[in-house]
Amino acid sequence: FVRGPWNEFNADFLIPRSGPTAAAGEGPAGIPEPDKPRTAQAARDALNSRKPKFLVYHPDKTGWTPEDHHVRFIVTLVADNMLQNLWYESEWKKRGLDIAKAAYEVLIFLKATLFVDPSPPSYSA
């Protein structure tokens, strides 16, 4: 239930920042995470107001910020799963912010599994 939003996030946000055209030293692992409460609130607001910026099938992402891409992931994840009856509109109205925060955590987990830390913590003395 996350494959579609994840594939889009990966293709439109992560890959362009890690490919040969990325600036020196830039990469998905080096991009700071957007503020979780602000991003989750923006996603909730986008879904509640039916913002076309995040809900259209193929949005124009020119000039999008990292937070915009994170919001799009959350919005598409929640909207797609409401269509599949994983979440219901009544549940979204009661716990929308909690659901958006949980979707954000799913995204952070997926990003963490994609990239290997070149300098992991060492446990040697």
Outline of the structure:
The protein is built from five helices and no strands. It has 125 residues and is an all-alpha fold.
Number of strands: 0
Terminal Cα separation, in Å?
43 Å
The quaternary structure here is single chain
Mean pLDDT across all residues, rounded? 86
Q: How many domains make up the 3D coordinates?
A: 1
The largest sheet is: none
Written as H for each helix and E for each strand, in order along the chain, the element string is HHHHH
> β content, as a range?
under 5%
User: What structural category characterises the helix and strand content?
Assistant: mainly alpha
Rounded to an integer in angstroms, the radius of gyration calculated over CA atoms is: 16 Å
Weakly predicted, low-confidence segments: 22-27
